[in-house]
Amino acid sequence: MVETIPETIPETNANCLFCKIIAGQIPADIVYESDSAIAFRDINPQAPTHVLIIPRKHIATINDIEVHDSALVGSLYSAVRDIAVTEGFADDGYRVVMNCNAAAGQTVFHIHLHLLGGRSLGWPPG
Ligand code: 5GP
Ligand code: ZN
Known about the structure:
Blueprint: H1 17-22, E1 30-33, E2 37-41, E3 49-55, H2 70-87, E4 94-97, H3 101-104, E5 113-117
Antiparallel strand pairs: 1-2, 2-3, 3-5, 4-5
């Protein structure tokens, strides 16, 4: 039997928690949706507003972002801008973080921006 090679890398990962949320297989409190991204409230919030913004495409870590993903990654920040307005802290300020791999504490290997707002945030972070 001849093995066929996919022309493109699969855009979803069947074992990925966030791909399951995108597919509607796991419930989430979704606050934003676009063609390229979705956002939902973190299950363990670290601020009055703690939203995760993720691309619909499965990308495991920042290290796996490719040149042709630039617009996709940029669209995550467009989502942040809009959600910050909706949540009411765009002018006061907020923080956006993306953890990468073990030293930063990444636990879900589908890239996501953490949007934290609604309180003062110390610096440097832990
Ligand atoms: P990381 O540690 O990878 O930067 O962030 C993963 C985030 O996903 C954590 O803040 C964690 O609370 C959140 N999280 C883990 N599982 C779920 C879930 O099933 N639903 C939601 N909404 N958030 C989750
Ligand atoms: Zn995924």
